[in-house]
Design goal:
The complex is a heterodimer of chains A (504) and B (155). By secondary structure, chain A is mainly α. Helix content of chain A is 72%, strand content 1%. Chain A is globular and about 70 Å long. Classes of the chains: A mainly alpha (504), B mainly alpha (155).
């Protein structure tokens, strides 16, 4: 099938009434969750995860993906107007909020929308052009190669996560341990179930994500998020218009941000958060006047925003072609597909061209929709920001509790969400990031399965893992990343004894 | 976050985090040691979890060691918000208790009212309006439209 036949197939799928509806729903709710302070994209995706059980896989994937990029679009609104550092838009505060204080919030909102659109479109083109050939190459991979790729995913998540590498490493491995809860598929041995029969099927990723990212975040924010002192009437049509100077400064920044984001999105463990931080850092480095940054430089707002959106799109490439999630959100989506009996991987595009191309076309639709939400209807979202978080969080809690209850109609799941909420709150107090844990949760069972299979094929010879060209070079590369990361950590922690340890 | 770089974790955060990691790693190792380990050729169900648990323990030890290194004055210490923890914890626990025994509407109302005690300004009138409105919405979405298998009110 040619490229245009594929697009035609995608359009046929995306333009069905049902898929249009779920695209609209996902994008709009994602945007809403992005705008509301204190509820991030991961919580949004996991709250709506149960809905995907009742609808076809393509509609479910379209909706969850829409939630993701919708939340990335929406989060910047709060960053600019209220200085709220959302995970995906923390760096946009640095220059966006000063712009708002100078009365240029409208320009910042308008230009970030353009930046988001540009980043997304390039990201979508990258998916459409590169995902099929990557999948074709991956078809030749065998278990050792997959084992190596999962190891790379782990080390990438350790190296690129925020905070100290030791902490991220502990989090990934903890996620893997939690991922092992339940019946071992090969030996039928129940593991870590502690006598609870419900644990035999494992703990649903939605439960863990809603606890760590939903309940924990609400406990953290309740009673401390600033209530908005903004006036929706300040955002007039006129105030949206950028000056010629703004445009001149913005377009190269948007292009650079898009490039940076597209690259970081594909990297394992990076995702939109890191992409936006890198977009900002690089923009500041190449700038002729770095002193303007932090005082309302428009480049410092548009570059990270373009990067976040580009990364958000390109992070679908490794998830759909290799079955390896690069961030917590694609991890939840991967789990959603697995529940539907679809395993993303090299065969995915060939076996389900309708789902893949439908998703690609829905990305385009969703982005157009978001531009409509953000330019003609921007005042609606600005108004929403003036609602104090204190008023909203009980409602979000109800959504979480009911959402989790509907997964299996299980009261135990509600209590587990609460448990993981407390764990997540404690982790936050001790400065452990929850994102690597969620990645580990998905990677753990994969790592074990590939390791087992590889060792059976090689008759127990561990060295065979390094003998294939792909697995060998990927494992070597992972080892280099790990050494580099821990040395970088040691340089800042000079006195610590060197005691690096590989994962394998 | 708007002011410069974030501060790294404090030595107390490193110490507690490290101790907890070691505790997690060790207890997981002890549990997983009961499962058959198998051989490299045929990995048993205990092989992988033992490996993971061992590495967690090691990393936890590294974190503990690193906590003894001197560092600038601790300013990143966090206050635990007991009020939020209690209000939200109790609200969710009561919801879990009530949803099947009393039905969706009482459970939702209790969750809304109890968790709202985490707010700074607790305004009874505002909370009453909000709770009624959200409960009505929840009834519409989950009972009327989605028809989840749970009673609205169970007497």
């Amino acid at each position: 099938m040619g490229f245009f036949d594929n697009l035609k197939l995608g359009a046929e799928v995306a333009f069905t009434a049902q898929n249009l509806f779920y695209c609209f729903l996902g994008v709009t709710l994602g945007n809403l969750m992005g705008v509301i302070p204190g509820v991030g994209a991961v919580a949004a995706v996991s709250i709506l995860l149960p809905v995907t059980y009742y609808i076809p896989p393509s509609a479910g994937l379209i909706m969850l993906a829409g939630l993701y990029y919708g939340a990335v679009y929406g989060a910047v609104t709060g960053a600019i107007l209220l200085n709220i550092p959302h995970t995906v838009s923390a760096v946009e505060c640095l220059d966006g909020y000063p712009m708002a204080k100078q009365g240029r919030a409208g320009v910042a909102l308008f230009m970030t929308t353009i930046a988001s659109l540009c980043g997304s479109v390039v990201g979508i083109v990258i998916i459409a052009l590169f995902a099929p050939p990557v999948a074709a190459i991956a078809l030749t991979f065998e278990s050792p190669d997959y084992f190596a790729l999962v190891v790379l995913g782990m080390t990438g998540a350790v190296a690129l996560a925020r905070g100290s590498p030791i902490r991220s490493f502990i989090m990934i491995l903890t996620g893997m341990l939690i991922g092992l809860v339940g019946m071992d598929v090969t030996s039928a041995q129940p593991r870590f179930i502690f006598g609870v029969t419900e644990f035999v099927d494992g703990i649903s990723i939605g439960v863990i994500a809603m606890g760590l990212f939903g309940v924990a975040e609400i406990i953290w924010n309740a009673g401390q998020v600033p209530t908005g002192a903004i006036n929706a009437r300040d955002i007039t049509w006129r105030s949206l218009l950028p000056t010629r100077d703004d445009l001149r400064r913005s377009w190269p920044a948007i292009l650079r941000g898009t490039g940076v984001g597209s690259f970081f999105g594909v990297l394992p463990g990076a995702g939109a958060v890191l992409a936006s931080i890198m977009g900002y850092t690089i923009e500041k480095q190449v700038s002729a006047e770095p002193e303007r940054f932090g005082r309302g430089a428009i480049e410092g707002v548009v570059a990270p925003e373009a990067a976040a959106n580009a990364a958000c799109q390109t992070s679908f490439v490794p998830m759909l072609t290799l079955g390896i999630p690069t961030d917590p959100i694609t991890a939840v989506m991967l789990a959603a597909l697995l529940i539907k009996g679809i395993s993303p991987g090299p065969e995915f595009i060939g076996a389900h061209p309708d789902i893949f191309w439908g998703l690609v076309v829905s990305f385009v639709l969703g982005n157009v929709l978001l531009v409509i939400w953000h330019i003609p209807f921007i005042r609606l979202w600005v108004k929403l920001l003036t609602i104090p978080f204190d008023l909203l969080f009980p409602a979000v809690l109800v959504l979480i509790c009911l959402g989790v209850y509907t997964i299996h109609n299980s009261v135990l799941d509600i209590l587990l969400v609460l448990f993981f909420g407390f764990v997540g709150y404690g982790m936050r107090l001790l400065r452990f990031e929850p994102a690597p844990l969620l990645i580990g949760l998905v990677l753990g069972p994969l790592l074990e399965a590939y390791l087992r299979r590889s060792l059976i094929v090689s008759h127990g010879n561990v060295l065979a893992l390094f003998e294939r060209p792909v697995s060998g070079s990927v494992l070597l590369f992972s080892a280099l990343i790990l050494v580099w990361t821990f040395r970088k950590g040691l340089r800042t922690k000079r006195k610590m004894k060197p005691a690096e340890n590989g994962p394998a | 976050m708007s002011e410069g770089a974030e501060q790294g974790p404090s030595s107390r955060q490193d110490l507690i985090g490290g101790l907890l990691s070691v505790a997690l790693g060790l207890s997981a190792f002890i549990e997983a040691a009961h499962y058959p380990i198998g051989s490299l050729l045929r990995m048993g169900p205990g092989f992988f979890p033992c490996g993971i648990a061992a590495i967690i323990t090691l990393l936890g030890l590294m974190l503990i060691i690193s906590s003894f290194r001197s560092r600038p004055v601790d300013r990143s210490a966090q206050v635990i918000r007991f009020r939020s923890v209690a209000a939200i914890g109790l609200g969710v626990a009561l919801f879990a208790l009530l949803i099947e025994r009393a039905g969706l509407i009482p459970a939702t109302l209790v969750l809304l009212v109890v968790s709202s005690f985490a707010q700074q300004r607790w305004d009874p009138r505002r909370i009453a309006y909000l709770s009624v409105a959200i409960t009505a919405l929840v009834y519409l979405i989950f009972i009327v439209v989605l028809q989840i298998p749970v009673a609205a009110v169970k007497l």
